[in-house]
Write a structure and sequence with these properties.
9 helices, Peroxisomal Thiolase, Chain A, domain 1, about 30% helix, binds oxa(dethia)-CoA, alpha/beta, single chain, five-stranded mixed beta sheet
Length: about 325
């Protein structure tokens, strides 16, 4: 597939820090439990700004860092599972704010795997001569979806956005994408349809037994154990498959960026694959799990630190609601 080169990265995290100690004031939990089970010490929460604001800030930074004029962007792809609007797409709001006046725009929702699916999509668009520069942004405001009486899920998630401007590269890229829809009810957030005043509508249209009938609408529902087990297997499978496709060995890769869900998931997958730990980038201690935004915020931190060098071989791997998973290897 068409190689990509990242020419600019950007990120935005809200100012409000929600530490484990703060969570302990509203939930029956403590820093020791959360840190030892997840590797997370704190996460950011967007108390007063919508998701699109975070997406716009990350995108403006990425476009500025890329050095291109916004009018040279041909496509804006936004990955999110926590949009402010059902429609229009988040990417349309971003397209307007960054001034990407010549760009098409659409969203991708594969939850935490969103950035990987978007990067794969970008590569395929870049095959076409009409598309030269693509802005990809992943942004999540998950706090409004979390139930802060549920100590097993709410402690994991944080808010934030990461963005990257990518352009064509003659160097290679490979991807492996997967979905296991039979696990859809391991992690979901159900829309509230009871607001309609159409007298013909029945209140609940989801067949009995498909999801927990008591599940609160607009609230993240997670079977933590099922997702954990899936994640460790799926990350290993995705990396193995993408390396097989590429003909590269795990030692050939300079940098691995996994989805930042839980340090223990990352450690188990890294151990199972036999990856060198020093090549694996982890930032979840201070960010928590920001879903699709995890991987691009890692890229932005690395970009900011001058650690994204030309010629580096980078492997991104993630999983999320769906359940979806995927990995990409590209040479920067
Ligand atoms: O992007 C994808 C998003 N989702 C994930 O990646 C989720 C993957 N799953 C996980 O990360 C883990 O399963 C959790 C962090 C959600 C839970 O960790 P766990 O080690 O699987 O804990 P558990 O559910 O087995 O619970 C063990 C105990 C239980 O108490 P009992 O029944 O043994 O008395 C829980 O009630 O820990 C209790 N517990 C807590 N205790 C203190 C659960 N959450 C907490 C908490 N503080 N926050």
């Amino acid at each position: 597939m068409r190689g990509i080169r990242i020419i600019g990265t950007g990120m935005y995290v809200p100012d409000t820090v929600a530490s484990n100690d703060w969570l302990s004031t509203i939930l029956d939990t403590n820093d020791e439990w959360i840190y030892s089970r997840t590797g997370i010490r704190e996460r950011r929460i967007s108390t007063d700004k919508p998701n699109f604001y975070m997406a716009e800030q990350a995108s403006l930074a990425a476009v500025k860092n890329s050095g291109i004029d916004p009018s040279e962007i041909d496509l804006v792809l936004a990955a999110t599972c926590s949009p402010d609007f059902f429609y229009p797409a988040l990417s349309c709001l971003v397209q307007h704010t960054v001034g990407a006046v010549n760009a098409a725009a659409f969203d991708i929702n594969s939850a935490c795997t969103g950035f990987i699916n978007a990067l794969d999509t970008a590569s395929r668009f870049l095959e076409d001569s009409d598309y030269r520069n693509i802005l990809i942004v992943a942004s999540e405001r998950l706090a409004p979806h979390c139930d802060y009486t549920d100590r097993s899920a709410s402690i994991l998630f944080g808010d934030g956005a990461g963005a990257a401007v990518v352009t064509k590269n003659n160097k290679p890229m490979w991807s492996y994408l997967n979905a296991k829809g039979d696990y859809f009810n391991a992690l979901y957030c159900k829309v509230d349809q009871s607001r309609s005043n159409c007298p013909l509508l029945k209140e609940d249209t989801v067949p009995e037994g498909l999801i927990d009938s008591e599940a609160k609408t607009h609230t993240l529902q997670m079977n933590g154990k099922a997702v954990y087990k899936f994640a460790v297997d799926a990350m290993q499978t995705a990396v193995t498959k993408v390396l097989e496709k590429s003909g590269l060995t795990k030692e050939d890769i300079d940098l691995y960026i996994p989805h930042q869900a839980n340090a223990r998931i990352i450690e188990s997958a890294v151990k199972g694959l036999g990856l060198p730990e020093e090549k694996v980038y982890v930032n979840l201690e201070k960010r928590g799990n920001t879903s699709s935004a995890c991987i691009p915020t890692c890229l932005a931190e690395l970009g900011e630190a001058g650690r994204l060098k030309d010629g580096m071989k980078i492997c991104l791997v993630g999983f999320g609601a769906g359940l979806t998973s995927g990995a990409i290897v590209f040479e920067q």
